[in-house]
Amino acid sequence: MVLYFQVFILLDSLNKKSLINIIWYYLGEKELVQIGIIILLIFFIVLGITNLMAFKIAGKNKRKRIWAGIIVLLLTPLVFFITYASVSPFDPGGFATGMLMVFFSFLFALNGTIIIVIGIFTQRSRNI
To answer: How far is residue 88's CA from residue 97's CA, in Å, rounded to a whole number?
Structure first.
C-alpha cells in the first residue's frame, strides 16, 4: 500500500510521464547503462550462436553454407523487431532505439552476407 502511494506521488511529481522515468528515478543512469551493456552482450551471444549453428550444420558443404547465409539474411527483420521490442521500453524518445535497430540489423545482415561469400568461395569436396 505504501509503495502504491509512493509510485502515485512520484507519477504526480513527474507530470505523469512514462514508467521509464520511474525506473530512471529509482535506478539512476548507471544501472540503465548496465542494461544497455547486457542487451549488447545478448546480441553478440545470439550472433555467435547463429554463426556456430550455420557453420556446424553446413559443415564443408558449399550449397548448405550458401543456404545458411540466406536463412540468416531472412532472419534480419526478426532481429530488427526483437531489438525494437526489447530496447524501446528504456528509451522514451525513440532515437536510440532506432539507431540500435539499424546497427543490430546491419550487423546481422552483414553476417549473413559474409556466410554467403564464404559459401561461394568454399571449394567442393572431392571424394575419391
So the answer is: 6
Residue with cell 550487423: 107
Given a contact cutoff of 8 angstroms between Cβ atoms, the answer to whether 51 and 115 are in contact is yes
Provide DSSP, 70-104: HHHHHTHHHHHHHHHHHHGGG-SSSHHHHHHHHHH
- Helices (H), ranges, the chain: 2-13, 19-27, 29-58, 62-74, 76-87, 95-120
Helix (H) or strand (E) segment spanning residue 123: none
- What is the mean predicted confidence (pLDDT) over 71-97? 85
* Residue 93 or 112, more confident: 112
Assigned C-alpha cell, 65:
553454407
User: Do residues 60 and 122 touch, judged by C-beta distance below 8 A?
Assistant: yes
Query: For the whole model, what pTM was predicted?
Result: 0.66
In a 13 Å sphere around the CA of 113, the CA atoms on its Cβ side amount to 6
